[in-house]
Amino acid sequence: MLEKSISQAVEKGEMLPLMEEFYTIQGEGSHTGKAAYFIRVGGCDVGCHWCDVKESWDPEKHPPTAVDAIVANAAKYSKTIVVTGGEPLTWDMGPLTTGLKNEGMQVHIETSGAYPLSGTWDWICLSPKKMKMPLPEVYEAAHELKVIVFNRHDFAFAKAEAEKVSSNCKLYLQPEWSVREKMIPMITEFVMDNPEWHVSLQTHKYLNIP
Ligand code: SF4
């Protein structure tokens, strides 16, 4: 159990359960290839069976960390910050994004959209999950829709999700890593038939970087 003062700070977003932070290359989506500092926040109850960061799910396993310290670390490395998880919107992202923006950073989020949108973002990558669907406000605000393709049913899901985002939202299909060899031919065929969509690959995994 967390001390009351710590749990109150977590509740206000002044502390966050920090799983890891690292400087790397964004491997996915619109900003592929860009150097970025990743802040991975613990806590997610969406429950994707193919999730490759299941160790992020339980927030109690990750130390509550003051956002000031997170911002100070990030400022040493990059002007582009990617906040990911876990599901970052489990928490109030206001204090973290205010701190990052005060340092002049471009602040991106990767979210399932399952929780209310908090914080101020330069780029919102919405990756919807069938188990816990996004809230309408996140569809409206998304700059990028990234649908993970695990099986052929995900193409119909992707089309339905594209109906819910704004007309200038970029559309990406990304094969789930463990089934990529099977799904890539289907994705490439789909994108050639539906050129408003783009292929996203987890290029950081091909590059062998975090
Ligand atoms: S939303 Fe993301 S972190 Fe949560 S279970 Fe799904 S893939 Fe994992």
TrEMBL record:
<dbReference type="Pfam" id="PF04055">
    <property type="entry name" value="Radical_SAM"/>
</dbReference>
<dbReference type="GO" id="GO:0008616">
    <property type="term" value="P:tRNA queuosine(34) biosynthetic process"/>
</dbReference>
<feature type="binding site">
    <location>
        <begin position="50"/>
        <end position="52"/>
    </location>
    <ligand>
        <name>S-adenosyl-L-methionine</name>
    </ligand>
</feature>
<keyword id="KW-0460">Magnesium</keyword>
<dbReference type="GO" id="GO:0051539">
    <property type="term" value="F:4 iron, 4 sulfur cluster binding"/>
</dbReference>
<feature type="binding site">
    <location>
        <position position="51"/>
    </location>
    <ligand>
        <name>[4Fe-4S] cluster</name>
    </ligand>
</feature>
<feature type="domain" description="Radical SAM core">
    <location>
        <begin position="31"/>
        <end position="210"/>
    </location>
</feature>
<dbReference type="GO" id="GO:0016840">
    <property type="term" value="F:carbon-nitrogen lyase activity"/>
</dbReference>
<feature type="binding site">
    <location>
        <begin position="127"/>
        <end position="129"/>
    </location>
    <ligand>
        <name>S-adenosyl-L-methionine</name>
    </ligand>
</feature>
<feature type="binding site">
    <location>
        <position position="44"/>
    </location>
    <ligand>
        <name>[4Fe-4S] cluster</name>
    </ligand>
</feature>
<comment type="subunit">
    <text>Homodimer.</text>
</comment>
<keyword id="KW-0004">4Fe-4S</keyword>
<feature type="binding site">
    <location>
        <begin position="25"/>
        <end position="27"/>
    </location>
    <ligand>
        <name>substrate</name>
    </ligand>
</feature>
<keyword id="KW-0456">Lyase</keyword>
<dbReference type="InterPro" id="IPR058240">
    <property type="entry name" value="rSAM_sf"/>
</dbReference>
<feature type="binding site">
    <location>
        <position position="40"/>
    </location>
    <ligand>
        <name>substrate</name>
    </ligand>
</feature>
<keyword id="KW-0408">Iron</keyword>
<dbReference type="InterPro" id="IPR007197">
    <property type="entry name" value="rSAM"/>
</dbReference>
<feature type="binding site">
    <location>
        <position position="84"/>
    </location>
    <ligand>
        <name>substrate</name>
    </ligand>
</feature>
<protein>
    <recommendedName>
        <fullName>7-carboxy-7-deazaguanine synthase</fullName>
        <ecNumber>4.3.99.3</ecNumber>
    </recommendedName>
</protein>
<comment type="pathway">
    <text>Purine metabolism; 7-cyano-7-deazaguanine biosynthesis.</text>
</comment>
<dbReference type="GO" id="GO:1904047">
    <property type="term" value="F:S-adenosyl-L-methionine binding"/>
</dbReference>
<dbReference type="InterPro" id="IPR024924">
    <property type="entry name" value="7-CO-7-deazaguanine_synth-like"/>
</dbReference>
<dbReference type="GO" id="GO:0000287">
    <property type="term" value="F:magnesium ion binding"/>
</dbReference>
<comment type="function">
    <text>Catalyzes the complex heterocyclic radical-mediated conversion of 6-carboxy-5,6,7,8-tetrahydropterin (CPH4) to 7-carboxy-7-deazaguanine (CDG), a step common to the biosynthetic pathways of all 7-deazapurine-containing compounds.</text>
</comment>
<keyword id="KW-0671">Queuosine biosynthesis</keyword>
<keyword id="KW-0411">Iron-sulfur</keyword>
<feature type="binding site">
    <location>
        <position position="86"/>
    </location>
    <ligand>
        <name>S-adenosyl-L-methionine</name>
    </ligand>
</feature>
<comment type="similarity">
    <text>Belongs to the radical SAM superfamily. 7-carboxy-7-deazaguanine synthase family.</text>
</comment>
<dbReference type="InterPro" id="IPR013785">
    <property type="entry name" value="Aldolase_TIM"/>
</dbReference>
<keyword id="KW-0949">S-adenosyl-L-methionine</keyword>
<feature type="binding site">
    <location>
        <position position="48"/>
    </location>
    <ligand>
        <name>[4Fe-4S] cluster</name>
    </ligand>
</feature>
<keyword id="KW-0479">Metal-binding</keyword>
<feature type="binding site">
    <location>
        <position position="210"/>
    </location>
    <ligand>
        <name>substrate</name>
    </ligand>
</feature>
